[in-house]
Specification:
five-stranded mixed sheet; 5 strands
Length: 120
């Protein structure tokens, strides 16, 4: 097998379930203030039950920071349930322009944080 250092790699979009209005997908380049504002809007809305924060790879830290910021703002009025997982990601790899593109799989860490109104 040839070295992958000279290959063209195209990372394909992550496949995830249908996005719900209460889902917040955190990316490495997400605006922190916009994430906090969106989360606060959801939590302060009438009938709020829960929201889900999702982070993948390099965005894990930002997802955790968002949850910590919400805990700082709302204190004991909210609680969370944190789960982690490993996600299969797919890349297209082209090591020779005359050969078909190959698919390559890699594993990345993910975090899912369910933020809910605390039970009294």
């Amino acid at each position: 097998m040839k070295s992958l250092s000279n290959c063209k790699r195209r990372k394909l979009a992550v496949q995830h379930p249908e996005v719900r209005p209460t889902d917040i997908y955190v990316r490495r380049k997400s605006n922190r203030h916009a994430l906090i504002k969106r989360a606060k809007t959801l939590i302060d809305s009438p009938g709020f039950k829960s929201l889900d924060i999702h982070g993948l790879g390099a965005a894990l830290v930002m997802a955790m920071e968002l949850a910590l910021k919400l805990k700082e703002i709302y204190g004991d009025t909210i609680e969370w349930n944190i789960t982690t997982s490993s996600v299969e990601l797919h890349d297209e790899v082209e090591d020779d322009p005359e050969v078909d593109v190959q698919m390559q799989t890699r594993i990345n860490s993910a975090i899912h944080i369910k933020v809910a109104r605390a039970l009294k």
